Amino acid sequence: MTAAGRTAGVVIIGAGHAGGRTAERLRHGGYVGPIDVVGIERELPYERPPLSKGVLTAPEVPANAYLLPASKWAELGVKFHLGCEALWIDRVGKAVTVSNGTVLPYRKVVIATGLVPRRLPALAPVAANVIHLRTFQDAVALRQMIGAGRRAVLIGAGLIGLETAASAVKRGAAVTVIEAADRPLSRFVPAYLAAWLAGLHAAAGVDIRCGRRVVDSADAGGVARLVLDNGAHIEADLVLVGIGGVPNDRIARNAGLSGENGVVVNEFGQTSDPDIFAVGDVAAHFSPLFARRWRLESWKNAEDMAAVAAAHICGSAAPYVETPWFWTDQYDHNIQVAGVPGDTVPSFERGRPGDRGYLAYFVEDGRLRGAIGIGCGRDVRLAREAIKAGGRVDPGDLAARGFAATAARARRAS
Ligand SMILES: Cc1cc2nc3c(=O)[nH]c(=O)nc-3n(C[C@H](O)[C@H](O)[C@H](O)COP(=O)(O)OP(=O)(O)OC[C@H]3O[C@@H](n4cnc5c(N)ncnc54)[C@H](O)[C@@H]3O)c2cc1C
Q1: 271 and 348 share a domain?
Q2: Residue ranges lining ligand 1, Cβ < 6 Å
């Protein structure tokens, strides 16, 4: 028993996907002590992928995709402090101070604070028209703004920008996407796939302008007038900024924990203080599979890191060795990416992008390093396992399964 007569337990900072899943995993792993979860949002933990998809396009606002219903959390004995910010980790006194004045003593802390969306100073004059899509409330507000005939400008042709473009077009909005890089999705998929996706958007009526930046804006009677770096003007009823986020690592930095592009953790999710873990979008971990340190901003990473940190706290440590994986849904296509495809053409392909069941393998030094599948989730799941296992790829076997080496296909086409 310490501060205010509370028993020290696990304090989870951030009631998002990774924070919520860590709490659940702790109980399933046999942890019986107190679990306190502190969250700025007033919602129980929920999944964010529907925010740029179903929440925008369903005929009615769908229910939030909660990880668990409130009754289940009560059964698990997890205590939430919602609408509260964790302000300070006292590593000497072993307590977390919360904005409502509560002081939570801890044995272990798990930092699961996610990202802070990047903002564009040039949009300050039209702040009333601007939205950043991170929370369920953001999505509901955006949904109300993208009805038929509305002019939507989406800044950033990343996953959130393009998914929102597809959703907004479906709702009848006129959509323009402004991207500073010379192509969409440059952080996510190889150029050939981005070109195919850009074609889908163009066919749906989305105006994608690459190599352009918004440099100024002005309010024109409730309409945002945006000025681009080539002098062009665009009018918008709403402006979605989807230019990524920065790791929300302030509380970790203030506590003196090591960090560089996020909170640095080892293979068990432990920070430079072994009693403090970090999981999800905020955590920079080392991947033994790809021999590099990175932060992954994906549903699966939130799941996997939560599992690893909770297992370690429960005393059955297994290191984080997983193949990165994410998906995106645009128009009628479910696109899944596993591993690291790089910015090259694939080594082997089955079909072409746009074909149902398109699958591409990216092979380096005879081993599978990445895979992209469209509408074939099971194949990508198998590829994920193969990447993790690190086995050698047999071209003869692939040919027998209907894959063509890309170079061979290029020769046939010429
Ligand atoms: C619109 C959208 C669509 C997405 N689509 C996909 C997809 O299709 N596929 C995919 O793989 N991934 C997708 N993702 C990514 C995925 O949702 C994230 O990787 C995942 O939510 C990360 O979980 P997290 O717990 O690290 O962060 P979050 O879920 O963002 O949770 C962090 C929480 O911490 C809270 N917090 C921050 N600081 C404090 C503090 N000091 N005190 C208390 N609380 C604090 C925040 O308010 C937030 O609620 C999408 C994300 C978004 C936003």
Answers
A1: no
A2: 13-19, 38-41, 48-49, 51-52, 85-86, 112-114, 133-134, 160, 248, 251, 280-282, 297-300, 302, 326-328
Q: Which tokens belong to 325? A: 């994986």
395 SS3 class: helix
Q: What is the pLDDT of residues 229-238, one digit of tens each?
A: 999 999 999 9
Q: Average of pLDDT values for 123-146?
A: 96
Q: What is the DSSP string of 237-296?
A: SEEEE-S-EEE--HHHHHTT--BSSSEE--TTSB-SSTTEEE-GGGEEEEETTTTEEE--
Q: Could you read off the pLDDT of 78-127 as tens digits, one per residue? A: 999 999 999 999 999 999 999 999 999 999 999 999 999 999 999 999 99
327: enclosing H helix or E strand: strand 325-330
How far is ligand 1, taken at its centre, from the CA of residue 65, in Å?
13
Q: Whose CA is nearest to atom 12 of ligand 1?
A: 298
Pairwise CA distance, residues 139 & 31, whole Å? 35
Is the domain of 228 the same as that of 254?
no
Q: Is the pTM of this model over 0.90?
A: yes
Q: Provide the residue range defining the domain that includes 97.
A: 3-116+246-313
Whose CA is closest to 17, among 112, 154, 94? 112
Domain count across the chain: 3
Token code pair at residue 249: 């690592």
Rounded Cα distance, 299 and 306, in Å: 11
